[in-house]
Amino acid sequence: MSLKVPKANNIQLFKEGYKHLSGLEDAVLRNIQAVSELSDLVRTSFGPNGRNKLLINHLGRLFVTSDAATILREIEVVHPAAKLLVMASQAQEAEMGDATNFVLILAGELLKKAEHLLVMGLHPSEITKGYELACTKALAELENLSAYSLPTPLTQTTLASALKPAIASKQYGNEDALASLVAEAALSIMPSNPKNFNVDNVRVVKIMGGNLSASKVIQGMVFGREPEGQIKKVTRAKVAVFTSALDVAQTETKGTVLIKNADEMLNFTTGEEKHLEKIFKEIADSGVKVIIAGSTIGELALHYLDRFGVAVLRVLSKFDLRRLCRVVNATPLARMGAPTPEEAGFVDVFETIEIGGDRVTVLRQLVEGDAGFDPTSQAEKTRTATIVLRGATANHLDDLERAIDDGVNVIKSLLKDARLVPGAGATEVELARRVETYGNGLKGLAQHAVKRYGTALEVVPRTLAENALGGAEGNEVLSRLWAKHEQKGGEAWGVDIEAENDGTLLANEHKIYDSLAAKSWAVKLATEAAISVLSVDSIIMSKPAGGPKIPQQAGNWDADD
Questions:
Q1: Cα-flanking dihedrals φ and ψ of residue 529, to 5°?
Q2: Which helix (H) or strand (E) holds 458?
Q3: How far apart are alpha carbons 252 and 82 in whole angstroms?
Q4: Which of 395, 436, 461, 513 could form a disulfide with 425 if both were Cys (CB 3.0 to 4.6 A apart)?
Q5: Are 353 and 362 in contact (CB under 8 A)?
């Protein structure tokens, strides 16, 4: 007869303060619940009729936006499983700059569907296997759905029409104006090989006042401040860029100077002044007419620069300083002194203009067709365009800037892969239909997961319809879409958010297209995130670093109770 050894109940595996959650109830379903909450939070912000979120971050800064990437950046998600989803959407933002919300919604929906299967008794490995099969099938079918490609050479009209759907999802109603601004700015800086297009070369300057119709594109760079000295306009000038302070050098140690008579008093600063004058005379003699300073400018330095007729502009952002060096083709100098011919840049026009009530400084190179354009000029054509945005409030301007960023990123992804698929949720319904048909032909338990993957894809058209037309209408529109997609040639039927007929429209006729590359990345990342969450079976959390928290006292610490 075997001896029964009693089990000890209090075996301590981890250090004090550790949390260990394992099993289906505690780990898997809890994770799914956390992820569902996150995806439900951003789901109402999806599409052109998405609602805005009002966020106040830890620094007390206010954001009013429906952009999922901004929402996730400003809220601090602490749940480990939800963080996986945040990482997937950040990867999408870095890679494509668009469809971040789609990643969150799809991953959240996939996990909600998986929850039913887990409760019914399916093993997570069967579900992950089915999801992987369905993802491969969806990506293969997505390649066949490309209905239209961006024609080359690019024109402003074709580029603007491809951008409109992406911009409309952030700024519905302003998409025409914003898309034409972005298209104009992008085409003016397009390199001879479009694949080398750099999103950093489209800048945005926000000036309060006026309205969106007063916004415009300016070639070159615009700074929202005036030059420091008296000289406000220079043409065809050499440019020197300094990152150091333009001022009298301070010694590291403190010294005491004993002055015995009035002459010594008068001559005390003369040496410094002469030294400074000598430096600026050298700079002026080398032909430099414009100085860009990345730090402070002393009053004495400003006096000599005005005397020598040199314009000075302070640019405090190091990113802007780098961009400016690209525009004028100069090398930033860390010492005060005359630049060599290789280090100096060149600009055709440096001027101060008035936009609204604000005076701004513009640095630009002349292009063909401008008055005074010289084809033999040594200036390279600038590869930077600035969109000057006008709007009533700072929050509105920030939101417009985010829409423009999305538009510029869409251009970048379209230049890599010019294929477009029907938008308005049409592609997702068609993929759902094809994935479900594929699932019906499979054997084994994985088929349930494949079919659930198909139903999860319906979340996009349903969300679009719910956000635009109200909750009850979502199912109605979806069933009409399914009926139309079952017919031959019905791949392009999508959600009509304006509900002019029965809530459905042909995406091709209304020129509503989405980037195929962005869509396939989003499907891939959402599936990977969902599989990562499903394959976790226990969570082990260590005690947070740092000592005990100081208790918050009510009122002031020295107030009498």
A1: -65, -45
A2: none
A3: 51
A4: 461
A5: yes
The pTM score is 0.78
Distances (CA, A) of 70 to 62, 232, 458: 12, 38, 25
Q: How far is CA 498 from CA 16, 65, 170, 421, in A?
A: 58, 22, 16, 21
- E strands present in 118-174: 148-149
As a whole number of angstroms, the distance between CA 537 and CA 29 comes to: 10
Maximum CA extent, the chain: 115
Q: Distance between CA 454 and CA 458 in Å, rounded?
A: 7
Using alpha carbons, select from 49, 45, 43 the residue that is nearest to residue 497: 49
Q: Which helix (H) or strand (E) holds 193?
A: none
How far is residue 469 from each of residues 49, 183, 186, 442, 498, measured CA to CA in Å?
A: 9, 31, 35, 37, 8
pLDDT in tens, the chain (561 residues): 566 666 555 666 666 666 666 666 667 788 888 888 888 888 888 878 878 888 887 788 888 888 777 888 888 787 878 888 888 888 888 877 777 888 888 888 888 888 888 888 788 788 888 888 888 888 888 888 777 777 777 777 777 777 877 787 777 777 788 888 888 888 877 767 777 777 777 888 888 877 777 778 877 778 877 778 777 788 888 888 888 777 766 666 677 778 778 777 777 777 777 777 788 788 888 888 888 887 777 777 788 778 887 888 888 777 878 878 877 778 888 877 777 877 778 887 888 877 777 778 887 777 665 655 655 554 455 577 788 888 888 878 888 888 888 888 888 888 877 788 887 878 888 888 888 888 888 787 878 888 888 888 888 888 888 887 776 777 777 787 778 877 777 777 877 777 667 777 777 777 778 888 888 888 888 888 888 888 877 777 777 766 666 665 555 555 554
Dihedral sign from CA coordinates of 377, 381, 386, 388: positive
Supply 293's token pair: 């300073």
Rounded Cα–Cα distance for residues 544 and 539 (Å)? 15
**Rounded Cα–Cα distance for residues 388 and 354 (Å):** 12
